[in-house]
Design brief:
Blueprint (H helix, E strand, L loop, with lengths): L1 H18 L4 H36 L20 E6 L12 H8 L2 E2 H8 L5 E2 L2 H19 L3 E4 L3 E2 L1 H7 L10 E2 L5 E2 L4 H6 L5 E2 L6 E10 L18 E11 L3 H22 L3 E5 L11 E9 L4 E10 L3 H6 L2 E4 L4 E4 L1 E10 L3 H7 L7 E2 L13 E2 L5
Parallel strand pairs: 4-9, 8-14
Antiparallel strand pairs: 1-11, 2-3, 5-7, 6-7, 9-10, 10-16, 11-12, 12-13, 13-16, 14-15, 17-18
Amino acid sequence: MAALESRRAEQNQASDKIAKAATPEERQALIASMKSVKESMEKDDAAFKEVMHEWQMLMVTVPNIPDMSVPEGASDADNKEVRTWGEKPTFSFSPKNHIEILENLGMIDLERGTKVAGFRGYFLKGDVVLLMFAVWQFALAEMVNKGFTPMSVPSLLKKTPFIGTGYLPQGEEDLYRTQDNDYLAGTAEVATMSYFTDETLDIKELPMKMVSFSPCFRREAGSHGKDTKGLIRVHEFEKIEQVVLCEASHEESVKLHEEIAANAESLLQKLGLAYHVVVNCGGDLGLGQVKKYDIETWVPSENTYRETHSASYFHDFQTRRLNIRYRDPVDDKLKFAHSLNNTAIATPRILVPIIEQFQQEDGSVVIPEVLRPYMNGVTKLEKKVK
């Protein structure tokens, strides 16, 4: 950079001399001497761009610093439970898993799903589709009532938003890529955050709270052999995502982190689903996460909790990359905002605990009360009598 700036200064001085040249001969001589300076500057510029690219590629691999409250640990096995809610259901019969229940009801077809869409493909049919739409409508209505602005966002995105939100370069193997070198997102967070790229926000609008819906796609490249059947882990799904931008304050981030986790818990509580919350250890944090809670809902057939929500805050990790700032009126300086996100609801995964926790001995599934207004009069998933 110093060499390049020196060349530019030399070029500026020469240009000034050319403008002030007394004779045409002197001007031509100065122009000729400028040629070598220009060639040297072009070489320096090319070398500088190469170094900057290498530096930038190194910098985007640097992780964020975890909060001091994050527990030590190497994997999700070291995550710590912080609270539980609800009674795990007990049954007077041998409970079935969601695949058996839906197959018996004629509401899922995994065989044709694989035939048409390949591995992890699925078709849902009948009233379980109404149930999935009901979950979306319920979650969206709840979040709007909490002051979140609803957004419908794209899943097919340029590369830059994925770098900005921290999903690239490390997560490339889990992303679908198009022939045009665009990518399919695995969460509405990527598009929602990138909506504000290179913008200066009005501090009066902070915190900005969005709830975004999008189809989502993940290759599940690191999950071979895990959840190979059913609706827990699929390549194509839908999410309603909470995304928040706030002032550059750790205290504000912590407060909002607890709030977005509580929002997701409120949805599960109204659905009547037993769950617990764990705080993720350092080894189970993503690249940009300062702290993360996983909310895991009880799945009776597995006799365990399975993750249905993740609540994270990032400080300015994402906003620096995306250049999202605001002007602080106290010192009149531009500052990078802080960002947070959390699932509101994800389908079809959330259907698994709903179906399994509310299954009945006759093979039917009782619809949670809060979803019934969206179910077109259906109160149970059950076989239709022809």
